[in-house]
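Hi C.,

You asked whether I'd gotten around to modeling the 248-residue construct. I have! Everything is below, sequence then structure, no commentary in between.
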Amino acid sequence: MTNERKISCLIVDDEPPALEVLKKYIAAIATLELTATANNAVEALNILQNRPIDLIFLDIQMPQLLGTHLIRTLKTPPRVIFTTAHRKFAIEGYELDAVDYLLKPISFERFLKAVNKVLDAAPATLPAITPIPPAAASPPPTTTAPFIHLRADRKTIPVALDDILYVESLRDYIRVVTRNKTIVTKQSISSLEESLPREAFIRIHRSYIVALAKVESYTAELVEIGRQQLPISRLYRLDVEKVLQRRL
């Protein structure tokens, strides 16, 4: 039996549901140990000054002090995995040399991928631990439903997330295009965006959301899904390119 020290973790998040999800994920990985939690960056700063922390799961948008600002105040910050519901913070997160950037809601598979990045790069300051194969860890029950439910023609239609190709805004309506059908429903594209898992879908334009797994090719101006070419607006271009470069 080895006496390898576990990686001590700190979760900083002001949203209780997100904090609970990360607690479950950390508990499922034998090489991680939850040392403390904090509801804001100021509380986290006090913890970091009094306890050894190897890895922070850090929300960005919090009251009093942003998570990115917290990292800038530290002379020798621990390794950081940013967690946030706001894709617009991605660039700043990577500029701060974060290990990874997780978009909420966070799947266990995506969490494990980020943790393995920490383990891969662990030399001097972290215990040397072999990265965990996905099959070796049992994921907690997922909080992301595999379906969304849309109202159309006076009916509620369950739509599998895996079947969605893209979503198009039609003013007060949206058009959800799947492998087998198209559904038009009265809903804003922004409200639907909130219900889609952010690790699987990305907003590329004020009028379009695409499924990342369905993107076959892209340029700076458009993405291609099947025979359909969808525009990327300048507002979203930097974030879209960064995400697609990691995915494709």
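If it helps when you're writing up: Residues 141-145 have pLDDT under 50 and may be disordered.

Thanks,
B.
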